[in-house]
Amino acid sequence: MGSTDTRPPVARRTPGRLLFLFAFHAALSGAFIVAYLTGDEDTYAMHQFAGYTALAALAVRLLAGVLMPVGPLRLPRPAMAATRDWLRRAAMGDARAWGQRSPLLAWMALALLAVVGAAALSGAVADFVVPMEKLHEALGEVSLPVVLAHVALVAALLGLKKAAGWRARPTPRQEVIAP
Amino acid sequence: MIRRMLTHTAAATLVIAVAAFTFQALAGGDGIARTAWTLTAAVAGGDHGID
């Protein structure tokens, strides 16, 4: 009864793992929005609360990624060759490329984790090392365009997916009416 | 899936905003009215709060 399957184990996309990803996305994006809107001096305690929430969400996500390096919880690992190949096929009008998960999402996830993580971490450090405040402010300003680019990319990929679906729809057959 | 993510994000934003507001109002000792005023001024783009 020995198994001959030598493939590496692949962690499945279970409802629990998906829920974790949804919760992480919600916590990080919610904390980012609140922290960005309360950057004013008068709302400093709110800004701090939201910033530390974002930092905690990122820490839990990194820990999950390190503990589960395979499957849906693994940290984004963008591949240059796969991205080039997808871009070439998408530009050529390949409907299958339009419909599949784009490798650009991994690049975007990495950029978001890096920029928002750096903003949150520098904010925490700035609580103790005051000169870090300028860097924290700069990183906060840089992170907004990256977040907006993420939203734009998701919307564009959704549009491509819909276009691929329309293309794949069978054209109505011409009825041949016997004379 | 995107609609679900947006709903979760909106809900989380609300929860975190309320928690942060409560933190500033109670732990910061500012009180609810003062915190509400400073938050309104900050979000509306005002330079100063109640001072």
Automatic annotation (TrEMBL), chain A:
InterPro entries under this entry?
Di-haem_cyt_TM
Say which domain of life the source belongs to.
Bacteria
Q: Which UniProt keywords apply?
A: Membrane, Transmembrane, Transmembrane helix
- Bilayer-spanning residue ranges: 18-37, 49-70, 104-130, 142-160
Q: What is this protein called?
A: Cytochrome b561 bacterial/Ni-hydrogenase domain-containing protein
From TrEMBL, chain B:
Give the signal sequence positions: 1-27
UniProt entry keywords in alphabetical sequence: Signal
Q: Give the top-rank taxon of the lineage listed in the UniProt record for this protein.
A: Bacteria
**Official protein name in the record:** Uncharacterized protein
Q: What is the lineage of its organism?
A: Bacteria, Pseudomonadati, Pseudomonadota, Alphaproteobacteria, Rhodospirillales
